[in-house]
Amino acid sequence: MRILKIIFWSVWRIWFYILLGVPILIMFPFLFISILKESWYPYFFRMARIWAKVILYGMGFYYTLTKLQQPEKNKSYMFVANHTSMMDIMLMLCVVKNPFVFVGKMELVKIPLFGFFYKRTCILVDRNSSKSRFDVFERAQKRLSQGLSICIFPEGGVPDDQTIILDAFKDGAFRLALEHQIPIVPLVFYDNKKRFSYRFFSGSPGIMRAKILPFVTTEGFTLDNRKAIRDTTRMAIYKELLEEQYEPVAKANKLTT
């Protein structure tokens, strides 16, 4: 049985990289045209959402979205979520309709085809370079001034320890949101770690649930409040993940009493 699982996981993971590249090849002329001007980014974003859905459905995933608050059209937001899987990018693109720009790590540029467009459309950060971190703020400010939103995974990466429910948040997303007085939109991805973690021999097709939590306002607050805003956002996501983790135990205890 273990051998069959290893064969499945190997084929499945290879299939993921095929799905990653084939839609880009098919849409390449249109994608390339859409990145020639920054003002055309919303067209690129629409195609990126199609690409994300092809990958999700092609991998055997389907998603559900619960909204406790609805983002408005033509308004800028700071979207943040817990980060546990490569599928977080795809799921974020699927569930958020407001055109946004990712702030992401430099290493993903190395992925063939994907890296070509990733480099030209996302805001890249080298976390070991203070200059790079400063450049991120400049580029993000420019994108926000164009009416776009920003998406950051504030943990700064996927924790190596798989037992960590939610790692500490870095300040960048909250500083940007405060400087521009835009609402912070916390999202919770419940199943991505279980469905498609960074461990090669793991995962399975199935549901990927997402929830948009009530927005965290920044209006009237200053940079002096960034730690409080950051901790409020993190706690909202953490509570959801913690309740999800212990809900099956609570149900089992209720059945036995």
UniProtKB/TrEMBL annotation:
Keywords: Acyltransferase, Lipid biosynthesis, Lipid metabolism, Membrane, Transferase, Transmembrane, Transmembrane helix. It comes from the Bacteria. GO terms for molecular function: 1-acylglycerol-3-phosphate O-acyltransferase activity. GO terms for biological process: phosphatidic acid biosynthetic process. It holds the Pfam family Acyltransferase. The chain crosses the membrane at residues 14-36, 48-65, 77-96. Pathway: Lipid metabolism. Residues 77-192 form the Phospholipid/glycerol acyltransferase domain. SUPFAM superfamilies: Glycerol-3-phosphate (1)-acyltransferase. This is 1-acyl-sn-glycerol-3-phosphate acyltransferase.
